[in-house]
Amino acid sequence: MPKANWIRSFDLSGKTDDGSGSLVSRQTFRLEKVGAHMSSDFLDMILKRKRIEIEAAQRRVPEARLREMAGRLNGGRRSLVDALRAPGPQGLNIISEIKRASPSKGLIHPELDVQGTARSYERGGAVALSVLTDRDFFQARPTDLQEARTAVNLPVLRKDFIISPYQVYETAVMGADALLLIVKALTRDQLKGLLELCGETGLDVLVEVHSEKELEDATWAGATLIGINNRDLTTFETDLRTSVSLAPYLAPHQVGVSESGIRTRGDIVELLRAGIWNFLIGESLVRAEDPEVFLQILLGH
After folding, report:
1. Half-sphere exposure (Cβ direction) of 184: Cα atoms closer than 13 Å
2. Active site (annotated) includes residue 33
3. Which of 92, 145, 154, 240 has its CA 20 to 30 A from that of 121?
4. For range 73-77, the mean pLDDT
5. Average pLDDT for 223-241
6. pLDDT given at position 234
7. Domain count of the fold of the chain
8. CB-based contact 34:49 (threshold 8 Å)
9. How far is Cα 117 from Cα 37, in angstroms, rounded to an integer?
């Protein structure tokens, strides 16, 4: 795997890799207040910022070089699909998330111990990890994903706003096993193209939807793992009934994952009744006094 010091070349707030010391202009976001001022175009703001990040990264590490590096690492990945395909011993699977902040909740755990948290998740029974890698809106650090993956034997999902082939290669070089694609952030053709590229690169993909139309687009593009996001990314309002309403529309070959807003064992029981056995849980675990114990409670131990 690439060393952490190479990954730091993607730190868009730092020096360019030619040592010139020039800085990428970046906007400062006050996450402690942003949740109270959520607007319907918030996703657009995130995506605009992401395009700036990608352009800056391409100037430092050209895509051709990144693609070559990703090709050399195509192997040794842990299968997220296999981890989620069937219910675990307790009748469900949990992907536990590592996150320091979010646009809707502000700062959650800015000094999170990534490796310690990852190990506690594995001991608690998680089948996979999700690691936020966005810096402006989720306060991720450049080495979070690699630190998490080296601490455990679980598949690791890179959770970010992926809109470019460049980020697919970047994800592979980071050492991730899978990445998230958000239907709302992509055209149909972009979604299909990125899915195919992930297949060529050896990455599993969790395709996130929030509506029946988005699920249709995901199915058309060839998605197998479907993340049903209970949070509307334009308003950031959360409703578990989103998963309940969309679960019946999953194709027989598709595997559903309920995301966002899952806080209690009761929430999980409700979603299990709807036919969903995979759950991606972040904030409630990160805030828990003992994530390992809380995870076991969620699993029904």
Report:
1. 20
2. no
3. 240
4. 81
5. 92
6. 79
7. 1
8. no
9. 30
Q: List the catalytic residue out of 50, 93, 96, 97.
A: 97
On whether residue 161 sits in a domain, the answer given is yes
Residue labelled with tokens 């810096």: 135
Among 53, 170, 214, 259, the active-site one is 259
pLDDT at 39 over 90: no
Residue 198 placed within a domain: yes
What domain range includes position 94? 72-299
Q: Looking at the domain assignment, is residue 27 inside a domain?
A: no
Structure confidence at residue 28 as a pLDDT band (50, 70, 90): very low
pLDDT of 261: 93
Name the catalytic one among 96, 147, 159, 283: 159
Q: Is 126 a member of any domain?
A: yes
Is 278 an annotated catalytic residue? no
Nearest residue to 261 via CA among 215, 290, 229: 229
Query: How many other C-beta atoms can be found within 10 angstroms of the C-beta atom of residue 252?
Result: 4
Q: Would residue 120 show up in a list of annotated catalytic residues for this protein?
A: no
**Which residue in this structure is represented by tokens 């030619």?**
18
Residue of 229, 230, 243, 278 marked catalytic: 229
Which DSSP helix (H) or strand (E) runs through 280?
Answer: strand 278-281
Torsion 127-254-158-200 (CA) sign: positive
Q: Is 229 a catalytic residue?
A: yes
The model carries a pTM of 0.87
Quick check: is 99 catalytic?
Answer: yes
Q: Please pick, among 99, 104, 164, 283, the residue that the annotation labels catalytic.
A: 99
Q: What is the mean pLDDT of residues 93-104?
A: 90
| pLDDT bucket at 15, cuts 50 / 70 / 90 | very low
